[in-house]
Amino acid sequence: MTVKLLYFAWVREQTGISEETIELPGEIDTVSDLMTWLKARGPEFAAAFDKSDVIRAAVDQTHVAHDAQVADANEIAFFPPVTGG
Amino acid sequence: MIRVQEADFDIAAELARLTGGRTDLGAIVTFTGTVRQGAGDDKIDEMTLEHYPGMTEGELERVEAEARSRWPLAASLVIHRYGRLAPGDNIVLVITASAHRKAAFEAAEFLMDYLKTSAPFWKREVSGGNARWVEARASDDADARRWAAPDKAAE
């Protein structure tokens, strides 16, 4: 299953990319699993997801917790806590 | 109604467009958030607001719908800017209109508290040539939580 990943703010700066499309490995069930998998992709991703507990996620443009399922996701975004307004 | 835009907004024009000609309104609240320059070590030269196109609009619509389900609003508007901003520039506009002031005041405050913790915007400040991402404040989460449903708030 392919899924679009998006990165914002300092997560984007550290990964070095704003978006990509990947083939989601079958063993990944949750947002947390996906972050663990991303961390192992190289030094940029390891740095970006080092403080993964503070990173927020959205699945198909809806805020989700780290234990949310990603099986049916089309788009998953990772970003720091929001600071608008 | 919600809008996400790079361009500035004209508060008087937006107010006239939203409420002009209506005779059912008794209270209109207008809130504008602007870029604060700060002082000393916190003094900033400029700011860039990044956002998540698509989700931003979705979250603002969700927050506005929630406000309209909680208060008897006759009209409402949220405009949020993104891109490069200078101290003093407008960032966000919230207008709420109702028959009575309490609903308009409360709904405007609710909209701001909720959008600050849910709309996917990120502020990056430049100060003396150094850029840094603004950190989220715990007090913003607390401000949003106080609007929890009444049965939850009483617990």
Layout of helices and strands:
The complex is a heterodimer of chains A (85) and B (155).
Chain A: E1 2-7, H1 9-15, E2 19-23, H2 31-39, H3 43-48, E3 56-59, E4 62-64, E5 75-79
Parallel strand pairs in A: 1-5
Antiparallel strand pairs in A: 1-2, 3-4, 3-5
Chain B: E1 2-5, H1 11-19, E2 27-34, E3 46-51, H2 55-70, E4 73-81, E5 83-85, E6 90-98, H3 101-118, E7 121-127, E8 130-133, H4 138-145, H5 150-153
Parallel strand pairs in B: 1-4
Antiparallel strand pairs in B: 2-6, 3-5, 3-7, 4-6, 7-8
How would you explain this protein's 3D organization?
By secondary structure, chain A is of the alpha+beta class. Helix content of chain A is 26%, strand content 27%. Chain A has one domain (2-79): Beta-grasp domain (Ubiquitin-like (UB roll), Roll), CATH 3.10.20.30. Chain A has a five-stranded mixed β-sheet with strand order 2-1-5-3-4. By secondary structure, chain B is α+β, with helices and mostly antiparallel strands. Chain B has one domain (2-148): Molybdopterin biosynthesis MoaE subunit (Aldehyde Oxidoreductase, domain 3, Alpha-Beta Complex), CATH 3.90.1170. Chain B contains five helices and eight strands; from the N terminus they run βαββαβββαββαα. In chain B, a hairpin with a 2-residue loop joins strand 7 (121-127) and strand 8. The N and C termini of chain B lie far apart (33 Å). The A-B interface holds A 6, 8-10, 58, 61-63, 77, 79-85 and B 33, 49-52, 54-55, 58-59, 80, 91-92, 112, 115-124, 133-136, 140.
